[in-house]
């Protein structure tokens, strides 16, 4: 399993394919555990987890001390209302972890569209200029963000650094 990582804030933000997608679930989970993410954001459906042999992902990561946020999005899709409801809390925790030097891993089936969309959203919510963030993201994962709708969602959370600081102080 390959983890595509870049520095964001004081931490590391990474994208990856679904653990087990290449047929080595145990090896993939061990690699993730050794990588030591503070939070894993899983964007796949239960059906995708089962098909990859990763039905036990939540248990395996939590047992290893990782926090797992399961926010499924249809392949090539964008967040639905349930995701949008959960996103503010997930985003705050992920941004805090990144600003504190933590590691965040975002995965979908292939580690491209859905993962890229969420990674870019986190980067812009932390104040990175969208064009610079996209260039950095695609330098490590050229397939990041696959549809115009995914790009629109990713860019909808753009903030300036000053806005981020004020927002965090109110929380």
Descriptive notes:
The protein has helices at 25-35, 46-51, 57-63, 81-99, 113-125, 130-140, 148-155, 161-170; strands spanning 4-8, 11-16, 39-42, 67-70, 103-107. The chain has eight helices and five strands; from the N terminus they run ββαβααβαβαααα. The termini are far apart. It is α/β, with parallel strands linked by helices and 171 residues long. Strands 1-2-5-3-4 form a five-stranded mixed sheet, with helices on both faces. It has one domain: Protein-Tyrosine Phosphatase, Chain A (Alpha-Beta Complex).
CATH class: Alpha Beta
Which runs of at least 5 residues are low in confidence (pLDDT < 50)? 160-171
Average pLDDT for all residues: 92
Main beta sheet strand tally, sense and closure: 5 strands, mixed
Widest sheet: strand ordering: 1-2-5-3-4
The secondary-structure element order is: EEHEHHEHEHHHH
Named at the architecture level, the CATH assignment is Alpha-Beta Complex
**Count of helix runs:** 8
Cα radius of gyration in angstroms: 15 Å
Structural class: alpha/beta
What name goes with the CATH superfamily? Protein tyrosine phosphatase superfamily
Amount of beta strand: 5-15%
Shape designation? globular
Q: And the CATH topology?
A: Protein-Tyrosine Phosphatase, Chain A
State the share of residues found in helices, binned by percent. Answer: 40-55%
According to DSSP, the number of beta strands is 5
Compute the separation of the termini in Å: 36 Å
The domain tally reads 1
